[in-house]
User: Fold this.
Amino acid sequence: MRFTVTAMLCAAALTSAAPAQERAPAAKRKPMDALAQTLLALTPPAGFSGTRPLGTLRAQPSPIRWLPTPKPEDAQSWKVGTLAGANVTAPRSDTPSTLTFSWLGQTGQPLGFNPVIAFRKAGMEVQALYCASMVSEGTNYFFVSAPGKRPGVLSVYAYDAPIGIASVEWTISYRLDGHVPTLEEAQAEADLDISTDCSTKTFGPVEQISHAKAVARTRRAEAPGS
Assistant:
């Protein structure tokens, strides 16, 4: 009898543990790690110039859960999928110039993302292009590159609930067209507080790159045979 009861208890323990083991892989994927893997998958290879069609992006294996059919988000964009708790949107175009990932958190509970650490861990080089004047809220622009890939520009807007009554919001956009925005363009699409002064170090120390050098590196990477 003792043996039977013990065997039954062991079997029950294994049965109850199984679902947790099955769920573990999904739970381990953090949002910024998933984003880094997504950009590695969707960034065109070196030697490519231009913008790839949305259908080509959807065909690439990536952590994005693509919607069967894009859903209108507003007059200019539509929702194309989800990624690790974020809505993924793109301009209404067969060849979207950007993908945008938006997370909304609970009031007063910061998400504490650090895309710089996640991208470096994935083997990408991250350089600061333009930066916000405040750590608590603002948009930072980064120039990101990986071996065998065309470099791209990432803009990171974060409002991570500095006070208890504020809602958390993160919006991260990645350019798919190889364009490196000027400071004036970045200020127009984000906010006027953006500058080339990156002394705030919102996500830790990051090497800075000028607009001219970022453009030059992108054009070299787009050249055939690069």
